Amino acid sequence: MRSLQHSLATFILLALASCTGPKHPFQDDNWAVVNYWAVWCKPCREEIPELNELNKSADVQVFGVNFDRKTGEALAVDSKTLGLEFTNIDDPSQSLGVERPSVLPTTLVINPEGEIEAVLAGPQTAATILAVIKPDLAVTPDKET
What we know:
By secondary structure, the chain is α/β, with parallel strands linked by helices. It contains five helices and five strands; from the N terminus they run αβαβαβαββα. The longest helix is centred in the first third of the chain and has 16 residues. The chain is globular and about 40 Å long. The termini are far apart.
């Protein structure tokens, strides 16, 4: 038994030492947008088309997190009901070092280095999210000089 425990411990240490994945779960060189949603949330329903459109951008990945922590068939049904065209993931708040949102919808904007650039509460549009990602392209009112 002791030999088995030693072998298992050695295997775990070797497996951990060989992990060379990215420092965050999102694809490198892309911005990530993580949206917390629920099927019962009317503002969530309204922003889904905007998030679907944003997900088509070459340098932005949109991920959904079901606020109710549904999985399997229940998650698939809710995703289809809302027309989600992006991937649902497990809640990354703990690994990102932020509190789980208590307001829906909430959107996290994460830069390519895996750092949170913004936490946006309430419904968003592609334009409001892109204003965080590409602030130099954001439309602002003309300033008088």
